[in-house]
Specification:
Blueprint (H helix, E strand, L loop, with lengths): L15 E4 L5 H14 L2 E7 L3 H13 L3 E14 L5 E13 L3 H18 L7
Parallel strand pairs: 1-2
Antiparallel strand pairs: 2-4, 3-4
Helix pairs in contact: 1-2
Length: about 130
């Protein structure tokens, strides 16, 4: 499954992240922070072996005060097999809600990050 935030699902949403194994959990943490900047709630959806990436990203966001766990559930979805037939795969749905302290934590992290990059001689645009 491709990293695709639009299309594919019956109700595509700007705040939906489809987690895969093509990127590691830190990428999805970064992406969720960017989406939480503009949305109150972000959804992480992952299938099968990508579930660990989604859970790890969600745990990081919760632990660092960016979000709270609003709702989480699992389901079993039928996937078509390459050679015909179907196979059941586990799918997780994680709904994270932005904390009231999100903006302060986000701004503080971005400031520290930019200072760290500048000290390494890497210029970043704000």
């Amino acid at each position: 499954s491709k990293l695709n935030m639009e299309g594919g699902e019956p109700h595509p949403s700007e705040n939906l992240i489809r987690v895969s194994l093509k990127r590691n959990w830190t990428f999805y943490t970064f992406l969720a922070k960017k989406l939480l900047h503009d949305h109150e709630v972000v959804e992480l959806h992952a299938l099968d072996t990508a579930i660990a990436n989604a859970v790890e990203a969600a745990e990081c966001l919760i632990h660092n005060g960016y979000a709270t766990l609003e709702k989480m559930h699992t389901d079993s979805v039928e996937m078509k097999r390459n050679h015909g037939g179907t196979i059941a795969k586990a799918k997780i749905f994680i709904h994270l809600k932005k904390t009231k302290d999100f903006q302060a934590i986000y701004d503080s992290y971005e400031k520290e990050r930019n200072e760290r990059l500048q000290s390494q001689g890497i210029e970043q645009e704000a």
